Amino acid sequence: MINNDFKMCPMCGSLKIECRANRKWVCPDCGFDLYNNVAAAVGIIIFDKDNNILFEVRAKEPRKGFAALPGGFVDFEESAEDAVLRECREELGVELSGKDIKYICSFPNTYVYKNIEYKTCDIFFAAPLPEKYTSIADFISYLKPEQSEVQKLNFYCVKSEEDIKKIPLAFESARKTLQKFILMGDKN
Fold it and tell me: Is residue 58 within 8 Å of residue 68, measured between CB atoms?
């Protein structure tokens, strides 16, 4: 059961706190307001010349055991571009060049964690495989995934809608991004 509701005001303890449209909490006793704003998250498609794409198998909820593109939430005082580079360092142990990443698209997403529903705006980028690697499989052998985030690394060849349907994706926003990715012409 998803529960995005407070039972009492976190400021004064009043039991009269009201949730309005699952977006804002208001306490009529002390005037406390809390907005449930959209969180920014990033993801990246790392691909090789054969359209093999790197995926993480999630090590934690939500959607533990499902495939996801490397990425995560944007930190305070951080751009989306900086966030995706940081997430690659943290989750994969690899340093990508900022000049190699290219914005693709963004999609809304719902992220349910510990029975709280978070609305996100997922911002996606793509980057070709760094030149020193011959394939995604070769690249995976050099990566050092963060075990608390990543069960294992995998790759899928993504050239069609049918290819996307075969991937046990964790999030709908990634599916829509992959659809957009395959429709792109020159990806470099």
Answer: yes
